[in-house]
Predict the structure.
Amino acid sequence: AQARYKAEPKAFEAPEQIRARHILIAKADDARAKAETLLADLKEGAKFEDLASAHSADPGSAAKGGDLGLFTRGKMVKPFEDAAFGLAKPGDLSNLVETQFGYHIIQLVERQPAGLRPFSEVREELLRDSAQKLANDARQQKVKPLLDAAKFQPDAIEAFTKASH
């Protein structure tokens, strides 16, 4: 496992990831005003998790204080992604971000730069792959003599075909 890790470092590169939370205000007549009020409350010190739990229209993340977990580029809609990845440091808030889902307020929680995943993180995966390769190789060694000994018998195939009609 360690030899493969050292021989194929590109296979274990991880892209930049961020962890963010958001509050989604679904589009309605007063959505923008409501989102602006929440953003002002956050800038005045309100706790993001509390406001997300109470007001976000995204039920999956609202239950977790708005937490979206770690994600890479290409996983969110473009305006949301641009705003989230544009935040500089943990705790930073976005301005209102409009998407087809409504208005978002995004807070950066953490940033993980691109880089090589540590061996400890990929060790089990590599060991599983190695064990599977060894098992496949062993199966192939058992099957090869059988395949080499097999003889093509057109008469038997023709008889079988006629019998099944």
Notes: The longest helix spans residues 119-149. The chain has a mean pLDDT of 93. The helical segments are 2-7, 31-43, 48-55, 59-62, 78-86, 119-149, 154-163. The first strand starts at residue 13 and ends at 14.
